[in-house]
Write the structure tokens for this entry.
Amino acid sequence: MSDEITLTLPDGSEKRVAAGTTPLQVAEQIGPRLAQAAVAAKLNGAVIGLGTPLQQGGEFSILTFKDPEGRDVYWHSAAHVMADAVVRLFPQAKPTIGPAIEEGFYYDFHMDRPFTDDDLARIEAEMQRIVAADEPFTCAYLSAAEARRRYEALGNEYKTELVADIVALENGLEPPRGREAIERFEAEHEREYEQVRVSIYDHGQFSDLCRGPHIPSTGRLKAFKLTSTSGAYWRGSEMNPMLQRIYGIAYPDQKLLDEYLERLEQARQRDHRKLGRELDLFSFHEEAGAGLPYYHPKGAMLRYLVTEFATREHLKRGYQLLRTPHLIKSDIWYISGHAQQGYPMYYTEIEGQSYGIKPMNCPGHILIYKTHKRSYRELPLRYFELGTVYRHERSGVLHGLLRVRGFTQDDAHIFCTPGQLNAEIIGVIDFADFMLRTFGFEHFQVYLSTRPEKSVGSDEQWEMATNALISALNEKGLEFDIDEGGGAFYGPKIDVKVRDAIGRMWQCATIQCDFTQPERFDVTYVGEDGQEHRPVMIHRVVLAGIERFLGIMIENYGGAFPVWLAPVQARVLPITDKQLDYAAEVTRTLRDAGFRVELDESSSTLGAKIRDAELQKLPYSLIVGAKEAEAGTVAVRHREQGDLGPVPLADFMARLAEENAPGK
RNA sequence: GCCGACGUAGCUCAGCUGGUAGAGCAGGGCACUUGUAAUGCCCAGGUCGUCCGUUCGAAUCGGAUCGUCGGCUCCA
């Protein structure tokens, strides 16, 4: 008697059901296991709740925790349950927003005090009760006016602000900001408030303004954990009040939660700050300043190997080496426009003149370009510098080598004609791809960042530059995401992020087009026509900050560097003192051949020497006892493969030489 | 910068509610001369981040400061 609708399932098959059937019922018809795993559904691209009656047919799928959208629904529901628990325990807490995030969820509360670890344990216990009660999530629609009255009664100004946002959004109006603006907005749009409908999701006694959808009931949350608390500004702005945030994670299975916690532990094990200490690579000194790293012999060697390789590869590609001072008169930064953006960040005075410590290398390279008249025949001109810059990072964001105040970039500026732009950008993309792969990264994500609000230059320039980047990406057949407004103030850019061994993404290479600096500094070249023209400038880094790159690299390799990057490639371990002479000879031979080798002269047992070499993650240990000394061999032990048996020293050298190649 | 937590020997950490510090590893010495992830014994090592307070008395309490750690628009 009721109308039927047709659902097209993901496998292409069609299913006819009565209009008004819920997705949960559909899932049950498909199979009980699916019904059990279901968290939400998708109809024609829109995520809907399992209890939403289907009124029309179309592309239909059941979402489980395995689907990214399903995961979001699951985590967002967990956030509601957490908010419920918090409000039960702390009636003074005002819920604000609580979204699902990449891994887990959070909820921000306006609170009279921060949450403590004890609070978290209590909140978790309360959540357990809510889950055990298996309360169904239900959805109701209210007029925005009604919702506003409710939240005003509760004294929750954050939610009334969100209601105002929804009303504004629905009517194509600018969302009001600030108490007064919101009150004015409410007064001026009473009619709209009556017309706009907002959804409210309830479970048990808890009710929250929410777009939804949610899982069918709280009992679906199986394994969860509240992971941390922190302060967080309302809407992320320092101008707004600080709220108290609680982070959590939830999974439909305890096993998955355990795996997540295991992943966190793995990340801790390969933390570059921990490895930096254990492998004696670098240190920071409270008495010498935050965010300023000190490289120990092994860390400095690692850094040397990286920069030496980078320099050679630049020279191969026609870049020329530059070196510019760290201190530059402040006037320069006004010409470049950096001063207006807050750069440089450290100043000093010399004989009454203001100088700034360079935060960027570009003006220096421009000065060198301008030392004589340039012909189009010289272009493209590629200037490369391992340029050390200093920037004031806020104390709260410093983080090991990944976020420092003084760092060296593999920085280059390419001056070229507009016609050469495309080929140059492609060249840089290829270069970056080669370099990052050589250092062991295989997965990349590319972003194109467009004009930010605070920017210089004309619309035409921005369009031209943006198009040049897009066409280069298209020519390389690279997929990319667009970061609207994420560009530098002087031009659009391409960013390349790499994925490390445990799945985290790190920003490395960036390629920035710049039509404005050449103008500001009046940079020119003489064209074929004998007239002066304006070159285009490309700012680009591949590894970006060397410090940061080392940090990423250390974590990616987990401290076990490949032979070509290992600060110490092999350690010679004599079994007894009687082999010390032979061991020293082996060490000398290897060093003469250019390998990085150490000799263990301690009087420890062999087992202890091996253990120490393993903990230092050295690629090879060469054990020499009486037999080896006699035969002129070394017993090779590999970091991962263990004992490989005795071989003539020459054979081992051949093996090491082969593995010593970049990228091996 | 803001919120919270933390700061004890080179490293990892113990030190209830205030009574002036302890372990393991690392380091030094001695013995052992060892065949693929820790030989034994002995020794030394800390103004408990720094400064100022409270107290008869502070590593323990309060404040400031420096530093470290986790966060600070993935938006109903």
